[in-house]
Write a structure and sequence with these properties.
41% of the residues lie in helices and 15% in strands. It is of the alpha/beta class. Helix 2 packs parallel to helix 4 and helix 3 packs parallel to helix 4. It has a domain of 253 residues: Vaccinia Virus protein VP39 (Rossmann fold), CATH 3.40.50.150. Belongs to the methyltransferase superfamily. Type-7 methyltransferase family.
C-alpha cells in the first residue's frame, strides 16, 4: 500500500471512531416555565439522597495509594447526561466532598488534588444555559463534552470518577423492529413497551443490553485502573411490569391523547403508530447480569433510593401539573422532533385534562418504580 493510501485509510478509521450513530435526545433548554432546569426537582432529590452513600463508598473504595490517584496529579470527574443544571452541580459537589475527605484522611500525606470536571450530554444539549449557571464558588476546572455516552468520549485512562444519574433508562435509539409495519414487534397503537406484545418488550430489552454494554465498555476504557463510577438508574423491581405502574399508566394516557389528536386531524395515524418513547426500565437482576456479562467492573453496591415522589391527595391538582410539566421538559423535544412543534402545547394540555379525569396513576399502589444506586469499580487487570 502506498503512503498516501495508508494515510487515507488511517484517516477513515479515525473518522469512523468519532461518528455519532446515535439519536440525539435532549431535555428542554433555557430556564423558562417549561425548561428542564425548572422541572427537575425529582432528579435533584435523588442526587441529594445519594450524597451519604457516595461519600461512604468513596472512603471505602478509592485507593489513593495507587499511582493513578497521586494527589499531585489532576483528579478528573465526568458527569454523563448532565443536561443543563443545576442538578449536575450538586452531584459534582457530592463527589468532590467524598474525594477530599478521603485524601484528608491520609495521615502521611493529606494533600488534596486539583479537579477537572467534564460535563457531558448530547450535542443538542443547551450547554449555554449550563455554563451560565456554573457555581462561582466551585473548586474545579471544567469543560463541556458533547456526544452520546453510549460511545467513547475520552482517551484511554483519562477519568478517575464517572457519574450518571437518571439518564441510563434512555436508549441510544428506538429499536427498528417496533416501527416496521411487517415486523412481529410492530408497536401499533402504543408508544411504549409497557403492556405491549412480548416481541415489543424483547426488542426494547435487546436494545438496552446493547446500549448498557457499550456504555460500560466505553467507561472502563476511559477510567484509570481502579477508577470508580456511580450510576442512578430508574427501573422496576424484579417481576413488576411497567404496565402496572404509574409510569405505564401515564404513557398509555399520553398515547390516547395522540390518538385523539389523530382523529381530530391534527396529526396522522401513521405518525402515531411510528412514535415510540426511547425508555427502558431495567430490574436489579438485569443490571447485575449486564454488569457481570460485560466484565469490566465489580459491582460494589446496589440498593434502591427512597423515591422523592410523595403524593398527597389534597394537593392532587398541583401534583398533576408538576408531573405534566416534568414530562414535557423531558420528552417535549422528542415530541416536537416527531410531530412538529405545533401540537406540543395542545398535547400536554389534553394530557393534563385526562390525568385530572382519571387520577388513578397517582394512587400509591401504582408507585412501583424504583431508583437504583450502583457503585462500581473498574477492574484493575484491564
Amino acid at each position: 500500500m502506498s503512503e498516501s493510501r495508508a494515510i487515507s485509510s488511517h484517516t477513515e478509521m479515525d473518522a469512523e471512531k468519532f461518528k455519532e450513530p446515535f439519536s440525539t435526545y435532549h431535555m428542554l433548554g433555557g430556564d423558562d416555565t417549561h425548561s428542564y432546569a425548572q422541572n427537575s426537582e425529582y432528579q435533584k432529590q435523588l442526587v441529594v439522597s445519594a450524597e451519604e452513600l457516595i461519600c461512604k463508598l468513596i472512603d471505602k473504595h478509592l485507593d489513593i495509594e495507587k499511582p493513578s490517584f497521586d494527589p499531585n496529579k489532576t483528579f478528573r470527574i465526568a458527569d454523563f447526561g448532565c443536561s443543563i443544571g443545576p442538578n449536575t452541580f450538586f452531584a459534582i459537589e457530592n463527589i468532590i466532598k467524598g474525594v477530599e475527605n478521603k485524601y484528608k484522611s491520609n495521615i502521611k500525606n493529606p494533600r488534596i488534588p486539583e479537579y477537572h470536571v467534564f460535563f457531558n450530554d448530547h450535542i443538542d444539549n443547551d450547554f449555554n444555559t449550563l455554563f451560565r449557571n456554573i457555581p462561582t464558588s466551585r473548586k474545579y476546572f471544567l469543560a463541556g463534552v458533547p456526544g452520546s455516552f453510549h460511545g467513547r468520549l475520552f482517551p484511554n485512562t483519562t477519568l478517575h470518577f464517572a457519574h450518571c444519574s437518571t439518564a441510563l433508562h434512555w436508549l441510544s435509539r428506538i429499536p427498528k423492529e417496533v416501527t416496521e409495519v411487517n415486523s412481529t414487534a410492530f408497536n401499533k397503537g402504543r408508544i411504549h413497551y409497557g403492556g405491549a406484545a412480548k416481541e415489543v418488550k424483547d426488542a426494547y430489552s435487546t436494545q438496552y443490553r446493547k446500549d448498557m454494554d457499550s456504555f460500560l465498555t466505553a467507561r472502563a476504557q476511559e477510567l484509570v485502573r481502579g477508577g470508580l463510577m456511580v450510576l442512578v438508574i430508574l427501573g422496576f423491581p424484579d417481576g413488576v411490569p411497567p404496565s402496572e405502574s404509574s409510569i405505564g399508566i401515564g404513557f398509555n394516557i399520553l398515547g390516547s391523547c395522540l390518538e385523539d389528536m389523530a382523529r381530530m386531524g391534527k396529526i396522522t395515524e401513521e405518525q402515531v403508530d411510528s412514535f415510540n418513547l426511547p425508555f427502558y426500565y431495567p430490574s436489579p437482576s438485569e443490571l447485575k447480569a449486564l454488569i457481570e456479562e460485560n466484565g469490566s467492573f465489580t459491582l460494589e453496591r446496589i440498593e434502591s433510593l427512597i423515591s422523592p415522589m410523595k403524593i398527597e391527595k389534597p394537593n392532587l391538582n398541583i401534583i398533576i401539573k408538576v408531573c405534566v410539566s416534568h414530562l414535557r421538559a423531558v420528552i417535549g423535544g422528542v415530541i416536537e422532533e416527531h410531530f412538529g412543534n405545533e401540537i406540543v402545547e395542545e398535547l400536554f394540555q389534553l394530557h393534563m385534562k385526562k390525568l385530572d379525569e382519571n387520577p388513578m396513576m397517582f394512587d400509591e399502589k401504582y408507585r412501583k418504580e424504583a431508583n437504583y444506586f450502583l457503585f462500581l469499580k473498574q477492574k484493575s487487570h484491564l
